[in-house]
Amino acid sequence: MLAVAGLYLIGALFGSLFPVNQSWQQDPEGVELFVETNGLHTGLIVPIRSDYADWSDLVRPEHLDDSRYYGSHILIGWGHAGVYRNAPRWQDLRPGDALSAVIGSDDTLIHVSFLTYPQAYPHYRRRIRVSGQDYARIAKFIRSSFRLDAKGRAMPSPGYGQDDLFYEATGHYSALNTCNNWTADALAAGGVRVGRWPPFQGGVMRWFVG
To answer: Which distant-in-sequence residues (6+ apart) come within 8 Å of 56 by Cβ?
Structure first.
């Protein structure tokens, strides 16, 4: 078990050090996004409405108990349902949820937090600018992670507070496909330079400095 854990950590290190989309550069006139971490999960902050993607048909104001929290942007992440619901911080992580996440589970969620005109913070929220076409590809990847009902609607449930929600998601979570891998894959789908396989949040955040 120690050998397996050691190999996993070595793989995580090298997977985060070697990038995809090596030649990518930010577009100074492009769409402003943010990559955020809470120390456990990473996610992407995107505008609710732009010329290249509009989330208001999927993530709707009436999903919130108080639509005044709807804001201008959303922070979107994907992950294991048990970990997401029960462990907003590392210290909250339950052994059963951790074991299920390592072994693998199809019980996944998208977590959406609503923000108003977010700003960058060096330690946990970093700004990037991508071209409109790159953002459209990122948005397409994110949309594909929402599980929809028979009428094509997203399926919300209560989050941690008044300004966030969980949504039913597609995808299989495991130690090889974590919430942080999902964030990296979303960025990679848009051509953004990011680590090839970063299962931990630090492996994602290291690629973004501002």
So the answer is: 48, 49
